[in-house]
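Example (one chain per record):
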Amino acid sequence: MKPIRASEPFVRFGLVRFQKLSITQDIMVSEPVTVIMQLLPQRNVDLIDHGVSENGARMLELVVRGMGSLDIKDLDPGTLPGNETSQWVKDFDLLRMPKIRLAVFHEVGIGPSLVRTPCDPEGLQVDELGQTVLAEAEVENDELVWKIDFTLPSGLLRDLGPGRFVSYVEEVDRRMPATYRPEPISLNTMFSPDKFETSGPRFSARIAFLETTKELLETVP
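Predicted structure:
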């Protein structure tokens, strides 16, 4: 299958400074300055509620889709000297596609009184920041599609009480750093995933997907 390469057009803006109270009309408007802005590919996010299971858990599915890149400029670690090339190839493959991160929170209140509690839903392996990195995207109709299923157990719903459940979705890229603090750098360090850098989010979304009222919680088994 051919790699899908995202179309990321650039938009050019012309900016000027306008000063109405200038001493002459000739200098009311400054010389134009050109600014270029990159437009990233569109993303569509669906958080699907599949209802309640027999044990009272809320079943959910996250789907993120859109155009994206399937590859980066190639570097074949397998051609490098050493006896760990198979692991280097595996680690380098982590850089080829964008990553989707998901975090789920329970929120109570608004504004200054907002209390946000990180959640650990079943089906998600969260890190120390409460985030889950979704599995690699699949290709469907010329789009990249990331999917994951998770559940909110009935015990979690009761323990947190009334409020709203919110998901935070981010798309990030992982890249090898431009420089390393220790020099010269060894191949083991160069291809170590803990040395890869994570870009700022190319896409982010906050989705409030479930309101847990007192009446609703009374029906939870």
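Caption: The first strand starts at residue 10 and ends at 15.
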